[in-house]
Structure formats: C-alpha cells, structure tokens
C-alpha cells in the first residue's frame, strides 16, 4: 500500500503514536515515508504538533500539515472561529497523491474520529480516504465503550465504500481490566477486520530506539512488526 489513512474511534485514542510506529517500522525497512496531517487543532503557530511528535519518535520522515487551528476543537469549528480556511477533501487527497509520487508510504492522520467535519459542507476524513481509494486503519481504545465506537466507525466506513484494513489498540494499559481483556477477542468482531496491533500505554514518551522496539512488538507483520493477535490474547490469559 502506498497510502494508508489512520483514523480513530475518537480523540486521544493514540492515533499519533500508531502513526509514528507505522512510520518507524517502514523507515527501519529502508522505505521513504511521508506523514500528512490535513488539520491540526489546539496548537499555536510555534508549538509542536502531531507531525513533530511523529518525527521525534520515528526519525527522518517527510511531514506536511495543511492547516493549523489554535482552538482545541473539531476542524470545522476551529476553522470557523479562527477565520482560517477549512481543509477540503480534494486538497488533502491531492497532497497525499503528490507525496506518494516520491515516497514508498504515505500516512494520512485524521483529527478525532472518521466523521469529524472538516468544513461547513460536512466533508470528513472518510471523503479523503474515498478520494484516494486508500485503506483505513482504525485506532481504538482498550476498555469499556470501545466496541460500540469501533463498530460504528467500521460500519460507516464500509457503507461509504472504504476498506477497513484492521484495528489497533492505541494505548494498551499496563494493568488491563476485565473489559480490556475481553475486548482483545471482541474488537475484531466489532471492526469486521483483524486486530493488527496494540501499543503499550506511555509508548509516546519513549526515546526513538526504545520506541522502535515497542513498535515492532506492537504492530502486525503487515507493517513490519512481530505482533500476533492470537499469541497476544493467550499471553493475557496466563
């Protein structure tokens, strides 16, 4: 795949850490990687954003941010309040396509969930993925409530003609509760696609070398890692 769209079941589920892990593994294989953030919200002009965090964790990757809005709100609301033009799906798709011409892998990281609005017309990340004919990776939470959010995300994605590649738990707790333990087997059912990884909580606070090892252990061989969902589930029951 040359373009992969990374979405989440909501805000704060670990999309940036997963994006960085994907980038780190691809770089380790010698691939040229680019990360596109169509809309960054809640960050001032001189503050580091999500693409800067990806660079810190993954190393030498090309990054591009189309629009930055200071308010920590959904992109459409933040754009309206700031007076800065909204991101249009065609613009984001064009930027990803341009990056794909000179890179082996382009990761498009959304803001919030799949249907968070970019503009007043209701355009979303789903429209960007559709325009690119790109597969979708869903980043989900581990615990209670994640099954419904994951099922809703996957269902609307499928209804819009998108290919849901799989689901990754963005922050696996050091001490998982009963809901999290049960969700390991239930998340693939909710997503209608396989569990392709689980990154440990706090992974984003690691240094680059340690993060690469965590990425390798926490992501599927599809992405260059060693994660095996069946082995992971068995390990939790011992």
TrEMBL record:
Keywords linked to the UniProt accession: ATP-binding, Biotin biosynthesis, Cytoplasm, Ligase, Magnesium, Metal-binding, Nucleotide-binding
Show the active-site residues: 37
The catalytic activity, as recorded, is: (7R,8S)-7,8-diammoniononanoate + CO2 + ATP = (4R,5S)-dethiobiotin + ADP + phosphate + 3 H(+)
Any one Pfam family here would be: AAA_26
Q: Where would you say this protein principally sits, based on its record?
A: cytoplasm
UniProt keyword RNA-binding, yes or no: no
Task: Summarize where substrate binds, as residue positions.
Answer: 41
UniProt KW ATP-binding keyword:
yes
Its pathway is: Cofactor biosynthesis; biotin biosynthesis; biotin from 7,8-diaminononanoate: step 1/2
Give the UniProt subcellular location, in the record's own words: Cytoplasm
Residues binding Mg(2+), per UniProt: 16, 50, 109
Q: Which cofactors are required for activity?
A: Mg(2+)
Question: CDD domains this protein is in?
Answer: DTBS
Q: Where does ATP bind?
A: 50, 109-112, 170-171, 201
Single GO term (MF)? dethiobiotin synthase activity
State the EC number(s). 6.3.3.3
What top-level branch of life does the organism fall under? Bacteria
The EC class name is ligase
Per the entry, what this protein does is: Catalyzes a mechanistically unusual reaction, the ATP-dependent insertion of CO2 between the N7 and N8 nitrogen atoms of 7,8-diaminopelargonic acid (DAPA, also called 7,8-diammoniononanoate) to form a ureido ring.
Q: Which family does it belong to?
A: Belongs to the dethiobiotin synthetase family.
Instruction: Tell me which PANTHER family the record gives.
Output: DETHIOBIOTIN SYNTHETASE
Subunit structure of this chain's protein: Homodimer.
Name of this chain's protein: ATP-dependent dethiobiotin synthetase BioD
Protein encoded by which gene: bioD
